[in-house]
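lol forgot to send this yesterday, sorry. struct tokens for the thing we talked abt
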């Protein structure tokens, strides 16, 4: 296995130029410090332009929610900048001055096209289904932005829409997204791709154990986040909230280092990780590494009823302070339905997975089917991974994954995040009920009718059907 993996890895990286390997790995950081000498207006917003030097700690982010004297009172009216961008040759062109312009009004953000307002170059991006060679970005502005910043305390700057489909992310993704797209996948990788709260953690544990010959001892002693890292989690560690986590853990250098490790971009950490790598992501296919499907990596895509997804994600957003949601469920659902929440549009995300379901290196599964017949799901995943199981082994894995046992397993519950002050102890646990149809406890009749209409309208545009959506699929 090692020899074959080594040959495959060389093949995956064959397209990377010598110049790319030699290029300095200096990247823009989405920091919050203003460039020296640049002070935003104290009373009214106005257009600002400045040249910003780019080094290891370069600052891009000046649209900061008011916290101290060096703040911009209204995010939506500011714009920057012309700046030299120093990035690996495999990411963006490295010569000349690249313009990041955010026009007042629409705030159409274009990152780094040498010919004007275009996105970062990704000539091979079409392998994952993106048309063209650019990655357009647009800042969220106006009233939606103000409401979002009020309801989600973890983000202090703003939000950006990425690609033609407008995938929604916190501000840090404006500089980190090109690195995710240009990350080099390997043939020995196993990726789990989901919209959040679609049974991701449960499936991660199943996949890791199947791939590692049912090593239950390691699975119980080593946190799942270490065995199966979250590719883009760092994008949710805003500098201000990260600083608060560090201050909370001021008495423990070990805990502070744990915070810094989580805030370190996954594309850096995983680039140095030995094979085989197990990687979790919520990015849609068109924002995943451009060589993922051509490299030979295995990809499992998981889908789940959007109403159950929303209920589970609502609780996670209240639980974890990188998001820090403070509102009620109906308000949260409206963010979700109107594509004003992380990783939305939900339907575009699912459709990208559905379109690739016949790819030989992709396994598309519904969470509802996996929960209804877990033994069959275990067999299906094992076959996809090329693993043989005895009946006894399958039964032991099924018992390990039983939701009652799973909820008691500290290795999968992100227990360390409580100690670090990143998760609240007064909210439901990271692993909840895993229940199919639990949404009914949260939707009023009016909200259910609204949700059902939205689901029906979107299902009419696709031949995908949820196993447990009979009420809206009749």
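and heres what i got for the seq, position by position
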């Amino acid at each position: 296995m090692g020899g074959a993996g080594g040959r495959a890895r060389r093949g995956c990286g064959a397209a990377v130029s010598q110049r790319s390997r030699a290029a300095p790995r200096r990247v823009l950081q989405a920091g919050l410090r203003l460039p020296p000498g640049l002070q935003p207006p104290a009373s009214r917003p106005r257009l600002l332009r400045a040249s910003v030097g780019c080094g290891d700690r370069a600052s891009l982010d000046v649209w900061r929610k008011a916290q101290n004297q060096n703040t911009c009172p209204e995010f939506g009216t500011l714009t920057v900048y012309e700046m030299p961008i120093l990035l690996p040759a495999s990411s963006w062109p490295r010569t000349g001055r690249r313009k990041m312009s955010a026009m007042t009004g629409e705030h159409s953000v274009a990152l780094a096209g040498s010919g004007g307002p275009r996105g970062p170059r990704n000539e091979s991006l079409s392998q994952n289904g993106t048309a063209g060679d650019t990655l357009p970005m647009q800042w969220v502005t106006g009233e939606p932005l103000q409401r979002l910043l009020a309801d989600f305390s973890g983000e202090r700057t703003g939000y950006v829409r990425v690609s033609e489909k407008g995938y929604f992310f916190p501000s840090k993704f404006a500089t980190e997204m090109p690195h995710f797209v240009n990350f080099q996948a390997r043939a020995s990788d196993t990726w789990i791709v989901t919209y959040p709260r679609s049974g991701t953690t449960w499936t991660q544990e199943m996949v890791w154990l199947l791939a590692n010959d049912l090593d239950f001892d390691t699975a119980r002693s080593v946190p799942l986040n270490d065995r199966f890292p979250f590719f883009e989690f760092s994008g949710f560690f805003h500098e201000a909230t990260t600083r608060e986590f560090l201050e909370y853990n001021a008495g423990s250098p070990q805990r502070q280092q744990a915070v810094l490790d989580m805030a370190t971009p996954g594309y850096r950490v995983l680039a140095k990780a030995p094979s085989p790598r197990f990687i979790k992501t919520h990015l849609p296919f068109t924002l995943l590494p451009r060589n993922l499907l051509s490299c030979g990596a295995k990809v499992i895509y998981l889908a789940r009823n959007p109403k159950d997804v929303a209920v589970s994600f609502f609780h996670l957003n209240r639980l974890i302070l990188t998001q820090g949601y403070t509102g009620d469920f109906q308000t949260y659902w409206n963010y979700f339905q109107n594509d004003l929440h992380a990783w939305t549009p939900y339907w575009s995300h699912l459709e990208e997975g559905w379109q690739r379901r016949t790819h030989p290196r992709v396994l598309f599964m519904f969470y509802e089917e996996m929960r209804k017949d877990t033994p069959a799901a275990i067999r299906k995943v094992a076959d996809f991974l090329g693993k043989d199981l005895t009946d006894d082994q399958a039964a032991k894995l099924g018992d390990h994954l039983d939701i009652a046992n799973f909820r008691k397993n500290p290795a999968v519950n992100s227990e360390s995040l409580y100690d670090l002050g990143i998760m609240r102890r007064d909210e439901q646990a990271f692993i909840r009920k895993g229940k199919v149809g639990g949404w009914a406890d949260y939707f009023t009749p009016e909200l259910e009718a609204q949700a059902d209409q939205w689901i029906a309208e979107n299902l009419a545009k696709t031949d995908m059907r949820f196993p447990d959506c009979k009420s809206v699929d009749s």
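The chain has a mean pLDDT of 75. anyway ping me if u want another try
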